[in-house]
Design brief:
Elements (H helix, E strand, L loop, with lengths): L8 E5 L4 H11 L3 E6 L20 H4 L6 E4 L5 H12 L3 E4 L5 H5 L3 H7 L4 E6 L14 H7 L2 H4 L20 H21 L4 E5 H8 L1 H13 L29 E6 L10 E6 L3 H10 L14 H6 L1 H12 L4 H10 L4 E3 L3 H5 L2 H5 L3 E6 L3 E6 L22 H7 L4 H9 L6
Parallel strand pairs: 1-2, 1-4, 2-3, 4-5, 5-6
Antiparallel strand pairs: 7-8, 8-9, 10-11
Length: about 425
């Protein structure tokens, strides 16, 4: 049960979501993560979306478990000295400050590399250096729009035919996970070279990577003029870019989200069902759905034929689903080999015992607050199970970290008096 990153020290100068999601993953995998926070205020998310006044917000808690916290004014000479000493003993330095901020502080990649050639430098920015938007601050929706997600998400016609951002954090936590991949690769590279490298991850790139199939669709559209798997085909018109796709599956199979029993009062009484192209699989689905005649009817029994009557198929399937509970449908269709799944609300997910058993949903005991619920470590390793611990109170580890760097009680008292660290 040895932690994969045991012995790795990370200096975390990130805030809000994209950077903290990355460094929290490193902490879960066993790294020692020291979070550098602004004196007096800390990470902005400590005070955002509060459910209990006077305590750290859930936004902060769910992104900063297993870390240590030091309040530090890195703009002061003494603060710069402390941060330099931390970097000199670190394996990674990670920041997601606005463009140019780390450079202005004196902690650019070049300077950090001089301080500690073995230190890997990770940075998150909205856009790559060569982008015309390189100096633009990027938030979650900005990245989703610039990365192609918003233009291809949502309804393709009617009043709601507008670019739509996903409820998933494609711009923030997704970028953090992409940076984790780069940092771990850099760590392996250092084993061979002995030297750290610069790892930059743009939010636009991270979103675009998840939109890879939409670029595929763009190329198909340019070559053929149509996208047969999208709702517009065969009766609608296609322009010169990939339209929004509603609830289609995205590959050349029929996938759709269907109403289930109780949909009138429950906004999540829905199930997603995919009808596969293979004749045997399609026939089995037809039988399970109470439409065995579709398997032999030329109007339905080939993928090409089904593409011409998608709306009729959607209507026919919903005649089955609307009379049954979503979990009952998944049970019946799942046994018949039909790819399907219920639409689960956050209320249902928070109470899912199977997710708690495997450590995906975790209850954490937080100082001052008590227990709160969070998402645990997504990858499951056979040789290591992370213990998800509390997020640090603001500046809770300031004294301990400074003493580890060799500072005396008198030094620390002076730092406090000069507002280099917390009061």
């Amino acid at each position: 049960m040895t932690a994969p990153l045991q012995g790795i020290k990370v200096i975390d100068m990130t805030q809000v979501q994209s950077g903290p999601s990355c460094t929290q993953m490193l902490a879960w995998l066993g790294a020692e993560v020291i979070k550098i926070e602004r004196v007096g205020t800390g990470d902005p998310t400590r005070d955002e979306l509060l459910d209990i006044e006077g305590l750290d917000g859930l936004y902060f808690l769910q992104l900063n478990c297993n870390k240590r916290s030091i309040e530090l004014n890195a703009k002061t000479p003494e603060g710069k000295e402390i941060l330099t000493k931390l970097i000199e003993g670190a394996d990674m330095f990670v920041e997601n400050l606005h463009p140019g901020a780390a450079d202005e502080l004196g902690f650019s990649w070049e300077e950090v590399h001089k301080m500690n050639p073995r230190c890997i430098y990770g940075t998150i920015k909205g856009f790559n250096d060569d982008s015309p938007y390189a100096n633009v601050k990027a938030f979650e929706p900005v990245a989703q729009c610039a990365g192609g997600a918003a233009s291809t998400t949502g309804w393709w016609d009617g009043e709601y035919n507008v670019p739509t951002q996903s409820g998933a954090a494609l711009g923030d936590s997704n970028t953090g996970m992409h940076l984790v991949i780069g940092l771990l690769a850099a760590l392996l590279q250092r084993e061979k070279t002995g030297e750290g490298c610069f790892v930059q991850q743009s939010m636009q790139d991270a979103v675009l990577n998840l939109c890879r199939i939409k670029l595929r669709d763009q190329l198909i559209l340019e070559h053929t003029g149509v996208l047969k798997h999208l709702p517009e085909y065969p009766n609608g018109k296609f322009g010169n870019t990939v339209p929004r796709a509603g609830n289609v599956e995205g590959g050349q199979v029929l996938g759709w989200c269907y109403k289930c029993k109780g949909w009138e009062t429950d906004p999540n009484a829905y199930v997603y069902i995919v009808l596969q192209n293979e004749a045997k699989a399609f026939a089995e689905a037809c039988t399970a759905l109470g439409k065995p005649e579709w398997a032999t009817d030329p109007k339905f029994n080939t993928p090409a034929a089904r593409n011409l009557v998608k709306e009729e198929i959607y209507k026919g399937v919903e005649e089955y689903t609307i009379t049954k509970d979503k979990n009952e449908i998944v049970d019946v269709l799942g046994k018949a080999g039909v790819p399907c799944g219920p639409v689960l609300s956050m209320y249902e997910i928070a109470r899912d015992e199977s997710l708690r058993k495997c450590g995906t949903i975790v209850e954490v005991d937080q100082p001052k607050r008590g227990k709160f619920l969070t998402i645990g470590c997504p990858p499951k390793l056979s040789t290591f199970t992370p213990e998800v611990k509390a997020a640090p109170l603001l500046g809770a580890d300031t004294n301990a970290v400074l003493k580890e760097l060799g500072y005396s009680d008198a030094d620390i008292a002076k730092f406090r008096a000069d507002h280099v660290v917390c009061k």
